[in-house]
């Protein structure tokens, strides 16, 4: 697959955008134009042609991907604290697992610095403000094209804010660029930020197409000169109408507004087939078999549906490390933490799921993700390899481009995946169950798990439905950055009275932990030093 446009130039401009964002947010209060670099293209020269629009657009997505993947933050924050993984020999990862989030480790200080997300906020806001001038200067860049691009910027900015609210709670809400000044704004209430996210997403949803560069009724024809056809260039790359409604479902679930979560998840499930151009079968967005979910794509180049591989329509919202465009890397992938020999040249994985946890989580003997195969008497290895060893290897995700027999290090192409069809279906089950619509909730739960070898909630079951939905999310979404946020939503629903976390050896219930701000991460001291208007989360003072 290749993009048929001036890829090298656009990639160079994207690098410039990334560099400018770093320059902007590394400074405390200086204007970025006080000292003009002789090596960088002037920012004012980046808004003249359709190529500039495309480069700035792709640059926004690159910044978001970096914000999620840097230091493996998506997984360290989503899967480790109170999660299923243990650390093999890294004290910094063990500190996160144990909830010592203010421990003095470089990786903790790095991922608690929200500057990388504000680089996204700045880039998207600049695009919203500056891109309309390209319509006037380049007649190839139509108003319709600009409207769609601005909608993407608004949706991407809303995603960045939603992601930060889940991590830090109250965060500064910046909606203008202030002509290059980094405004030392105080934190805005999480309620107001989420309201902003919802408003922006609803506006974007009215403009964005289901797919780009094809026969989509909202945006038909080529998009930046590219059509999908048999080479679906844009699949899994850009924010679509489905991406936005998926995000709206999660924003409203976080707000515990499950009535709207029901509406938005229903829209996604009723319309997801429109993500794929008719006749393009290899990239079909569908519920996945266990083989499609866990296949190492490097060994089977015909496999086109694995949601973690490259860019796929199956990624309702994800950020790809596309191998064909040189974006594969050794860092910023779950495999860097979970894999070892024979997959990569490493003796031990950095994190693993212990055997007792595996047996507790995967309880059904027919579960294709992990159980004993009655035909062979061996453990199924779709999720875990080397179960018979002291540390079973979590190998569900393994999109590997270089292995031990071809290189002395591993390079990965797995995407940072936020949501896929099974996840959004389980979110719908959660919403319906909370609202007391048991029949619909059970149908959604069983639909999400239908290709995993058994039905998690058979007819006549008397099990707690909410418990079963979150147990299925725990199994299906392991290693995808969901566990901590699921624990928060689960405890908000159930209001459990047992110990949720401890502080100085004292147990705290979930209600106490949430009230104290313990469900959020501390803000990096680097952020506070640079901006005195920022105060630390109460629990971490």
From TrEMBL:
<keyword id="KW-0472">Membrane</keyword>
<dbReference type="InterPro" id="IPR011990">
    <property type="entry name" value="TPR-like_helical_dom_sf"/>
</dbReference>
<dbReference type="InterPro" id="IPR012944">
    <property type="entry name" value="SusD_RagB_dom"/>
</dbReference>
<dbReference type="GO" id="GO:0009279">
    <property type="term" value="C:cell outer membrane"/>
</dbReference>
<feature type="domain" description="RagB/SusD">
    <location>
        <begin position="401"/>
        <end position="540"/>
    </location>
</feature>
<dbReference type="Pfam" id="PF07980">
    <property type="entry name" value="SusD_RagB"/>
</dbReference>
<keyword id="KW-0998">Cell outer membrane</keyword>
<comment type="similarity">
    <text>Belongs to the SusD family.</text>
</comment>
<protein>
    <recommendedName>
        <fullName>RagB/SusD domain-containing protein</fullName>
    </recommendedName>
</protein>
<keyword id="KW-0732">Signal</keyword>
